[in-house]
Amino acid sequence: MRIVVGVTGATGAVLAVRTLQALSSLGVETHLICSRWAETTLKLETDLSLADLHRLASVVHRVDNLAASISSGSYRTDGMIVVPCSVKTLGAIRMGLSDNLIVRAADVTLKERRPLVLVVRETPLHELHLESMQALARAGAVIFPPVLGFYHRPRHLEDVIDHLVARMLDHFGLSMPVPRWGERTVCDHSNPESSL
């Protein structure tokens, strides 16, 4: 399996890190593209460098390389995830402004009718954000704001992150071992300090 992973400068760099780790553990070939601002956000939000992030991917593409393999629909992939996805990138994808490889690869993913998951990281949302989301949803993209779930009673931030990443990867037919609705959770609810 081969999945393109775009990383923008929106907050939520840890979601990109965990997504790449999960895909690697599942044996998925990943093609990584980082925007110019992704490196800045990664440094602000984690202890990782861009080189550390690159090491999690199978192949790394420069964001300005519009001649990359993934810029063509003839290069077969199983879809793309943009995690996190800035509203700037969201708007560019909506308008088909393929001026960088993240936007071009997303455009290719849509036109080839492959899964495109956009992990839009912005709040609150105004009308133009919502219009872009609606237009892209109609075009076939999955709009996936990383909204926290609590029914699995997470005990740590890592539990929340893993649950979000697992739900994202569900859209590619991939499965991570996390608590699901209707299943017993892994939390120890007999300990009052382990739940809210």
Record the SSE blueprint:
Layout: E1 2-7, H1 13-25, E2 29-34, H2 38-45, H3 50-55, E3 59-61, E4 80-85, H4 87-95, H5 101-111, E5 116-120, H6 127-139, E6 142-143, H7 157-170
List keywords for this structure.
alpha/beta; six-stranded parallel β-sheet; 196 residues; disordered C terminus; 6 strands; Rossmann fold
Verbal overview:
Residues 1-171 form the Flavoprotein domain. The structure is a single chain. The protein has 196 residues and is an alpha/beta fold. It has a single domain (2-194), classed as Flavin prenyltransferase-like (Rossmann fold, 3-Layer(aba) Sandwich), CATH 3.40.50.1950. 38% of the residues lie in helices and 14% in strands. The protein is globular, with a radius of gyration of 17 Å. The termini are far apart. Mean pLDDT is 92; it is low at 187-196.
Tell me the β content: 5-15%
Care to count the β-strands? 6
- What is the percent of helical residues? 25-40%
Q: Give the structural class.
A: alpha/beta
Anisotropy-based shape: globular
Secondary structure tally, helices: 7
- What value does the average pLDDT take? 92
User: Quick one: biggest sheet?
Assistant: 6 strands, parallel
Look at the structure and give the CATH class: Alpha Beta
Instruction: Please report the distance between the alpha carbons of the first and last residues.
Output: 39 Å
The CATH architecture designation is: 3-Layer(aba) Sandwich
Question: Main sheet: which strands, in order across?
Answer: 3-2-1-4-5-6
Number of domains: 1
Radius of gyration using CA atoms only: 17 Å
Using the coordinates shown, work out and report the CATH topology: Rossmann fold
CATH superfamily, please? Flavin prenyltransferase-like
> How are helices and strands ordered from N to C?
EHEHHEEHHEHEH
pLDDT < 50 runs, ≥5 residues = 187-196
GO molecular function, one term: flavin prenyltransferase activity
Keywords: Flavoprotein, FMN, Prenyltransferase, Transferase
Protein name: Flavin prenyltransferase UbiX
InterPro entries: Flavin_trans-like, Flavoprotein, UbiX-like
